[in-house]
Design brief:
- This protein has eleven helices and 14 strands.
- The protein is α+β, with helices and mostly antiparallel strands.
- Strands 2, 3, 4, 5, 6, 7, 8, 10 and 11 form a nine-stranded antiparallel β-sheet that branches. Strands 12-14-13 form a three-stranded antiparallel β-sheet. It has a two-stranded antiparallel sheet with strand order 1-9.
- Helix 5 packs parallel to helix 8.
């Protein structure tokens, strides 16, 4: 990961634009980059501040007058063909609904309405609690936890405030830690029904929010706010103190019938962090000091940016954060103009509708979104026999998507990894968008295409919280083994670790199968029965 520690930003700019995805930068441009070691700062500034000509993604007043959740992405380019704008309209319409007041409980917003979304809860020891029993006594807030480094690794359950921290944490300029909350659509509690499907049903939704403590210099009217207990309260304590928190980040992942891979979108508060290259302002950032931001503006990064450390305290030294890729895109990325043009113009076009209860949303913006082009193919391709293949060629949108307050240290996306078996006479063949961990959404949430009979619901690669839901509510999971099992002896050897690798609380129940429960078709991988017992 790039740390931006006391190094010249011109080198940083070079690294930003040399990474490619799906398609290659024109050879002439690449030669120019290699020769100069940087890109003209004016070009970088222009790409951030203005939308490319010819793109204008419109907003709809009904998103705010009569908020509703969209069921599907529009197909403006014809049957089966959605534009980039269609995906960002889907994202903004979803965001506006979630930020609207609940019709059943006007005291909360839709995303906080427990009749629509459950909170992911944990026990005091950090193990999954029952998130499906509709008992929600208090907000469940989390310290930032380390993300898995590659597909298939065990997902680390975030630790509750007051318990040992699970990984890197970030602190604002007031030296208060950032808190996290996870919610999901109630249909995810029906574990057995979902696992009989290849993909999660349309409408399945996961939400992750990030919150900062509002300080004396913060204007609460410019934040989505909530009051919450952020320290453990003893049972005999009558007066529990609450703290006002302001929302600084919002992740949305929604599956639709046409996009079972989930549409991954993220929003941030405008005050969060400056851009790493040519920040527009040096003051009033929640996660960057004036002195450090000034060093970015002067092209002399002399602070340790985007390098949070593992902490357990709710106060600590302020974290310096800058945004590595505005709108999750670099100049050389495939469809850069259409992607950034759609995001920028739609962010601007929603502004006239942000009045009344929606006025506060003028302080937030859509960073970007990610999806796949062809749902029959997967989001991630593993190179075979050392041949360079495009591991993200099927991905579309903001290919370097990251939220600065939720994925601070995962903003450096490896889209130009190493060929496992390069031609020694042509070392240029060693550089290709192939192997290596890609730290955008699909780097951790791997989608298997519908052309395969493999299931996205019996693997924790796509939804990391699905097994936590099952464990906490004492439901059994079918979990894919790493290979095909053909005997009870082999099952006894392989299934126990298959279960514990999915969740340390899961144990093998003695059952396994090579056939789909819903269709009876042969599975490409055996599934083991795993229960919380």
């Amino acid at each position: 990961m790039n740390r931006f520690s006391k190094r010249n930003i011109s080198s940083l700019v070079s690294s930003l634009v040399l990474c490619v995805s799906g398609t290659s930068i024109a050879q002439a441009n690449q030669a120019a980059y290699e020769k100069t070691g940087s890109v003209a700062m004016a070009d970088i500034a222009k790409s951030k501040l203005t939308a490319p000509a010819g793109f204008n993604c419109s907003a709809d007043a009904s998103w705010f007058t009569t908020p509703s959740l969209p069921a599907e992405v529009k197909q403006s380019n014809g049957p089966g063909d959605s534009s980039f704008c269609d995906f960002y309209q889907f994202s903004w319409q979803t965001f506006s609904y979630l930020m609207a007041k609940s019709q059943t409980n006007p005291d909360v917003l839709n995303f906080q309405d427990t009749s629509q979304f459950n909170e992911l809860e944990v026990n005091t020891d950090g193990t999954p609690a029952n998130s499906c029993d509709d008992k929600h006594d208090s907000h469940v807030l989390f310290i930032r936890s380390t993300k898995p480094q590659e597909n298939g690794t065990t997902f680390t359950i975030p630790e509750r405030i007051g318990q040992a921290g699970g990984g890197a944490t970030i602190y604002d300029q007031n030296e208060n830690v950032v808190y996290y909350d996870v919610r999901f659509s109630k249909n995810m509690c029906d574990v057995k029904a979902i696992q009989q499907k290849q993909n999660f049903p349309g409408g399945t939704t996961e939400l992750k929010t990030a919150w900062k403590v509002l300080g004396a210099n913060d204007d609460p009217s410019k934040f989505i706010t909530m009051d919450a207990n952020i320290t453990p309260v003893k049972a005999d304590q009558k007066d529990s103190k609450t703290t006002q928190l302001g929302m600084v980040g919002f992740h949305i992942a929604v599956a639709t019938p046409n996009h079972p891979e989930f549409i991954w979108a993220t929003f941030e508060h405008k005050q969060n962090s400056p851009d790493c290259t040519l920040p527009e302002s040096t003051t009033d950032w929640s996660f960057a000091s004036q002195a450090c931001t000034a060093s970015l503006k002067d092209n002399k990064a002399n602070c340790d940016f985007n390098n949070p450390t593992k902490q357990t305290d709710i106060t600590g030294a302020a974290t310096e954060i800058c945004r590595m890729y505005p709108y999750g895109s670099s100049l050389g990325d495939a469809n850069f103009d259409e992607n950034t043009g759609s995001i920028k113009t739609l962010n601007a076009n929603v502004q006239p509708y942000l009045t009344g209860n929606f006025k506060v949303l003028a302080n937030y913006f859509n960073v970007g979104a990610l999806w796949v082009s062809d749902i029959t193919e997967g989001s991630y391709i593993t190179p075979t026999n050392g041949q360079p293949v495009s591991q993200i060629g099927n991905q579309r949108g903001s290919l370097r998507l990251a939220n600065t307050v939720a994925e601070t240290e995962y903003q450096d996306v490896n889209t130009a990894a190493i060929n496992l078996n390069p031609d020694q006479k042509n070392l240029a063949s060693a550089s290709s968008p192939s192997a290596g961990f890609v730290s955008n959404c699909f780097g951790c949430h791997n989608y298997t295409g519908t052309a395969s009979t493999a299931s996205n619901t019996t693997s924790n690669s796509l939804s990391h919280i699905f097994d936590d839901i099952a464990v906490g509510s004492n439901q059994c999971l079918d979990v894919q083994a790493s290979n095909t099992i053909n005997s009870q002896v082999q099952a006894k050897a392989d299934c126990p670790s298959t279960c514990t690798n999915s969740s340390s609380k899961l144990k093998w129940n003695g059952q396994w199968t090579n056939q789909s429960a819903s269709t009876g078709a042969q599975l490409p991988q055996t599934v083991c029965g795993c229960c919380n017992q």
